[in-house]
Design a protein that fits this description.
alpha/beta, Rossmann fold, 3-stranded antiparallel beta sheet, 50% helix, globular, binds cytidine-5'-monophosphate
Length: 216
């Protein structure tokens, strides 16, 4: 698939930041698939139900749009900006729990694929973009960084959103999530076949973007 870059990797590895910068440089759309799993977690909390069929009903015929607001991508669900609601670590953990369920994953696979328009181009970030959702993507990236660096980046993100951060809790929540994401039976986090692995621990965002741009 031309004009399609997948970026997979663990939480806090910088996927979102790199995806945003690449999208701006190339003029392509973005798909933040983690935000979709977080949206499902939010819906599940709201309806107090984890049944994939019930969650599916809530998603049916609803519009899901990523839009730049003040230089940040926001997620609009049926016209409502839900970005602040989905960014907490609690919702992240709940999203990771629900992401184990094959029915949940199938539910949003079609939605994820619908974000790709070959005339525009797409940067898709997540855990299984290059392995399951877009296995024939033209360029596949696996972005990683040490747990300490990832926690530091997540801390900055959460603080910017005015959320309280406890560093030891943040590290253990990221570690717990990594373990779950890597060891689950369905669509585990792994290095997709043909992916370029980038360890961003000691790289600036510009350096990572340049490595990817050299592949285009
Ligand atoms: O990337 P983010 O931290 O927003 O993702 C939240 C959770 O959603 C992840 O921990 C992971 O369990 C799940 N997820 C997934 N597949 C994706 C993207 C996210 O399972 N493609």
């Amino acid at each position: 698939m031309d004009k399609l870059i997948t970026i997979d990797g663990p939480g806090g590895s910088g996927k979102g930041t790199i995806a945003k910068l690449l999208a701006a440089k190339l003029g392509w759309n973005i798909l933040d698939s983690g935000a979709l799993y977080r949206l499902i977690a939010l819906i599940s909390e709201n309806i107090k139900n984890t049944d994939p069929d019930k969650i599916g009903l809530e998603l049916k015929d609803r519009k899901i749009i990523f839009e730049l607001v003040d230089d940040q991508y926001h997620l609009f669900f049926n016209g409502k900006d839900v970005s602040d609601h989905i960014r907490s670590e609690e919702i992240g953990t709940k999203a990771s729990d629900l992401a184990h369920n094959q029915q949940i994953r199938n539910l949003i696979k079609t939605t994820q694929r619908s974000f790709y328009d070959p005339n525009i181009g797409l940067i898709a970030d997540g855990r299984d973009m290059g392995s399951v959702v877009f296995p024939t993507a033209g360029i596949k990236i696996y972005l990683d960084a040490t747990i300490e660096e990832r926690a530091k980046r997540r801390q900055i993100q959460l603080k910017e959103k005015g959320l309280k951060v406890n560093m030891p809790n943040l590290i253990s929540s990221l570690e717990e999530r990594d373990l779950k994401d890597k060891n689950r039976k369905v669509s585990p986090l792994l290095i997709p076949e043909g992916a370029k692995v980038i360890d961003s621990t000691n790289l600036s965002t510009e350096e990572v973007v340049n490595i990817v741009m050299d592949l285009t």
